[in-house]
Backbone:
């Protein structure tokens, strides 16, 4: 018995995706074996008590402000019934404004920024809300195909209520001309599912004379198993 | 009408400084965790038999020696946490220090042998892969409801083997593709 329904067809990428060259030797060739959810999949690590307050600001790690456009990235983490996922660990990482990661294997000839590492963590609050202050990442070239560039993106890692809720994804920016050319985002067949990885600019999240605001809401797998809980909030 | 879960995207090649820099997250069982101490060495290989060197990450999730899962209060403690995360090294290997899990019940009154759940993330994986590690020679394996779903000739891909030289060390190769491809689960 699956407690969580499988995602609708086309709303998740398949690993076999020839346009993304790194999959060629890494995507399994055999079909996965369907597994009923056991207590192992329905439990999951909890991070509520992690002391990570202060790690949601990525702009104050150096001796000065990092280069680039300061942005707020915020949103709500909810389950498939629209209920807020409280105390969810949200981890993000990204390139700097020039499109360079603080990583020994990133050889893009763009400058590192001594004031920007590009990693942050936060826990969602009682309403499932998270909020980061960071800078807008730059696009960067990669070797997937001739003249290949990744659109600007922020990587997200989330733990929900259960092991089966685990999600690693990427958030993109509206209007980016590289989006139709990106084999990683275009690996998702369903157009609406692609669109949901697009953040939206919002004046309500924008801080006057400080930072532009982008909203990125996230839906994690999971439904309330018992009928005794309060009704879903939408 | 339920909402549709957000789509997965690859972890990419450059996650290490953010996700695997905190060594404490790899410690599945603190020094005070009860149970039989084991080390689990996993080697990740691609379809050409090449190790995934540094650009892959494994997360594990398991019950403790009492068959129970850890709660939030164990996140930072010295006891049993049940969760671990490691990047692969230059040989494609990651090692978890933990305790051997006890058997636990299955989905509908079925039985499960001691096992450890694995998530594999890597450059080149658009969705993480889900699999399990079982312990070779464990009598309960024959009654495990998940193993029973796996074609008999492929079950060995899930069985960690004890090291003949080092007591407590268990090894398993995770082959993402090709000859001897590891069984992955649709969870």
Residues:
């Amino acid at each position: 018995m699956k407690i969580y329904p499988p995602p609708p067809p086309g709303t998740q990428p398949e690993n076999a995706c020839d346009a993304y060259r790194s999959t060629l030797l890494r995507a399994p060739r055999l079909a996965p074996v369907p597994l009923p959810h056991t207590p192992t999949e329905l439990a999951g690590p909890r991070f509520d008590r992690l002391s990570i307050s202060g790690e949601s600001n990525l702009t104050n790690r150096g001796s000065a402000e990092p280069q680039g456009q300061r942005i707020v990235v915020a949103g709500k983490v909810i389950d498939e019934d629209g209920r807020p996922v409280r105390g969810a660990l949200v981890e993000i990482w990204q390139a700097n404004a020039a499109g360079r990661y603080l990583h020994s294997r990133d050889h893009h000839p763009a400058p590192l920024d001594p004031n920007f590492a590009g990693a942050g963590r936060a826990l969602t609050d009682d309403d499932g809300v998270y909020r980061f202050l960071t800078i807008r990442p730059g696009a960067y070239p990669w070797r997937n195909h001739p003249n290949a560039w990744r659109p600007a993106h922020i990587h997200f890692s989330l733990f929900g209520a259960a092991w089966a809720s685990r999600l690693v994804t990427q958030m993109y920016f509206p209007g980016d001309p590289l989006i139709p050319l990106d084999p990683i985002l275009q690996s998702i067949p369903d157009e609406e599912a692609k669109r949901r990885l697009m953040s939206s600019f919002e004046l309500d999240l924008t801080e006057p004379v400080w930072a532009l605001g982008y909203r990125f809401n996230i839906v994690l797998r999971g439904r309330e198993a018992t009928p005794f809980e309060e009704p879903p909030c939408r | 009408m339920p909402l549709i879960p957000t789509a997965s995207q690859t972890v990419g090649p450059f996650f290490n400084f953010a996700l695997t820099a905190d060594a404490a997250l790899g410690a599945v069982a603190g020094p005070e965790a009860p149970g039989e101490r084991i080390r689990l060495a996993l080697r990740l290989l691609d379809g050409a038999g090449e190790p995934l060197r540094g650009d892959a990450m494994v997360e594990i999730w398991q019950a403790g020696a009492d068959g129970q899962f850890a709660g939030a209060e164990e996140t930072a403690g010295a006891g049993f946490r049940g969760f671990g995360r490691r990047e692969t090294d230059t040989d494609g290997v990651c090692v978890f220090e933990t305790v051997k899990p006890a058997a636990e019940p299955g989905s509908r009154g079925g039985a499960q042998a001691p096992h450890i759940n694995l998530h594999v993330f890597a450059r080149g994986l658009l969705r993480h892969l889900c699999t399990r590690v079982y312990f070779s020679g464990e009598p309960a394996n024959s009654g495990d409801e998940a193993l029973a779903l796996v074609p008999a000739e492929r079950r060995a891909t899930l069985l960690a083997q004890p090291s003949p030289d080092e007591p407590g060390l268990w090894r398993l190769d995770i082959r993402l593709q090709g000859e001897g491809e590891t069984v992955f689960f649709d969870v």
